[in-house]
Amino acid sequence: MLNSQWLNTFLTLVDIGHFTQTAEKLYMTQPGVSQHIKKLEAQVGTPLLIRIGKRFELTAAGETLYRYGLKRLEEENSVLSSLQEDDAHQGECRFACSGSMAMYLYPHFLERQRHAPGLTLSMEAAPNHKIINDIKENRVDVGIITHPVDTSEFEQTAIGSESLCVVAPAQYPIKENDLSALYQLGFINHPDGKHYLQQIHQANYPDEHFDFNSITLSGYINQLGQILLPVAQGLGFTVLPEKAVRMFPNQDAIQVISLHRNVEQQLYLIVKKHRPLAKRYTFFIELINDLIKRPS
């Protein structure tokens, strides 16, 4: 890597065209300027200039290095400028949350981007453990998870809750809180399906062991927008957050089963500790808090 101080001396010398004046501008001695040039030539392995009396001419290598130096200086100035400017309307915003939450939030996020096209949005749908790991590894800046993290690495804020719904085909006859009948119908699983169903089971049948392997499985799908399609066609039941259920277009083909004990899943906004967020995140965090509190 080129020595930055020597390169800066070289660029200044070329711009001014005089050793003495270069030394004065850089608060150096003339021999000091000459020494920097010699060291830079030794580093690149070729002469950079030819002295002609009190003047000098750049060699071909000197011209190439000068152009490179100007470009590097421009890039450094650009980086320094961007570091000093924290524009709420520019830059990348990286979020991660469950698939249902992503489906709910993303259209509202896009509306913000439409008014601030300098923003770049990244929305990752992922389970809790991946969200936590991605924030830890700086791949994501803001996450929404469903349980608090017992570590000092993160800052986490409770932002509300979401109801879990047991969804069955509209025409399927079932009594209130009769999960055993649904277990025979078959479960449409998805990335969070087992976790959701376990919460429902433990809340309504606290004295019964939850054995996921004993439940008939009718299918698995990881595309949130399609999880309720097989349910609507009578092929099984599933468990999803209420907001995801309400967004399904064919509401007449499904039913939400009444439970003795509804399950509210707590939501936590999580960021990495000692990693301040840019100003562009302020709007989105306020929006998340507002949207979570809205009724489904």
Protein model, in words:
Strands 3, 4, 5, 6, 9, 10 and 11 form a seven-stranded mixed sheet that branches. The chain is α/β, with parallel strands linked by helices. The protein has helices spanning 4-16, 19-25, 30-44, 60-84, 99-115, 128-136, 179-185, 193-204, 228-232, 242-246, 280-293, and strands at 49-52, 55-58, 91-97, 119-125, 142-145, 154-169, 187-189, 217-220, 238-241, 254-256, 263-272. It contains eleven helices and eleven strands. Helix 1 (4-16) crosses helix 3, helix 2 crosses helix 3 and helix 5 packs across helix 11. 44% of the residues lie in helices and 22% in strands. The two termini are 58 Å apart. Belongs to the LysR transcriptional regulatory family. Residues 2-59 form the HTH lysR-type domain.
Strand and helix layout:
Blueprint: H1 4-16, H2 19-25, H3 30-44, E1 49-52, E2 55-58, H4 60-84, E3 91-97, H5 99-115, E4 119-125, H6 128-136, E5 142-145, E6 154-169, H7 179-185, E7 187-189, H8 193-204, E8 217-220, H9 228-232, E9 238-241, H10 242-246, E10 254-256, E11 263-272, H11 280-293
Parallel strand pairs: 3-4, 3-5, 7-8
Antiparallel strand pairs: 1-2, 5-11, 6-9, 6-10, 6-11
Helix pairs in contact: 1-3, 2-3, 5-11
